């Protein structure tokens, strides 16, 4: 993995879940259905095992990552999003790199659809097809083992 060209920082935003900006970003990572966004916000508010971090560049929230990390230091990404006007600038990669640097996981996992596979593959994740799981859509498991020099 290479470093991102942007100076940005991850901050814990779980306590700010009621802010429209954060809910809008979460909406970019779930099917844009108001009920689904409300369900996701509720999950983060009630599940102490779920974490939510924002990615801030020049005092501007450009993205977020939601995840769960277990005792074996396996970090499972539950949501990741970059604001539409900030996409293509390396912020998604930066979110992953900063998460590795900050939290030192041994393994990262994400389940996604075909649309996001190339993003994960470009960072170095191994992609495994899970077959059709939901309404005929193929799902993929993206897996990245963190090497000592990465963390």
Protein described:
Helices cover 30% and strands 37% of the residues. The protein is α+β, with helices and mostly antiparallel strands and 151 residues long. The protein has a seven-stranded mixed beta sheet with strand order 1-2-3-4-5-7-6, sandwiched between helices. A hairpin with a 4-residue loop joins strand 3 and strand 4. It is globular, with a radius of gyration of 15 Å. The N terminus is likely disordered. InterPro entries: Acyl_CoA_acyltransferase, GNAT_dom.
Quickly list its features:
single chain; 151 residues; alpha+beta; Aminopeptidase; 7-stranded mixed beta sheet; 4 helices; 7 strands; disordered N terminus
Q: What is the fold's blueprint, element by element?
A:
Elements lengths: L8 E4 L7 H10 L4 H13 L3 E8 L2 E10 L4 E9 L8 H13 L3 E7 H10 L2 E9 L2 E9 L6
InterPro entries: Acyl_CoA_acyltransferase, GNAT_dom
Protein name: GNAT family N-acetyltransferase
């Amino acid at each position: 993995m290479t470093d991102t060209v942007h100076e940005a920082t991850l901050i814990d935003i779980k306590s700010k879940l009621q802010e429209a900006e954060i809910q809008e970003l979460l909406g970019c990572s779930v099917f844009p259905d108001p009920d689904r966004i409300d369900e996701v916000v509720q999950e983060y508010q009630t599940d102490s095992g779920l974490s939510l971090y924002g990615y801030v560049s020049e005092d501007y929230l450009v993205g977020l990552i939601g995840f769960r990390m277990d005792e074996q230091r396996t970090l499972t990404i539950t949501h990741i999003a970059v604001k539409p006007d900030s996409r293509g600038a390396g912020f998604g990669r930066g979110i992953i790199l900063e998460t590795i640097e900050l939290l030192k996981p041994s393994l990262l996992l994400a389940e996604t659809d075909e649309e996001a596979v190339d993003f994960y593959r470009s960072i170095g994740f191994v992609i495994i097809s899970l077959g059709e799981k939901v309404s005929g859509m193929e799902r993929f498991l993206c897996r990245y083992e963190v090497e000592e020099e990465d963390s």
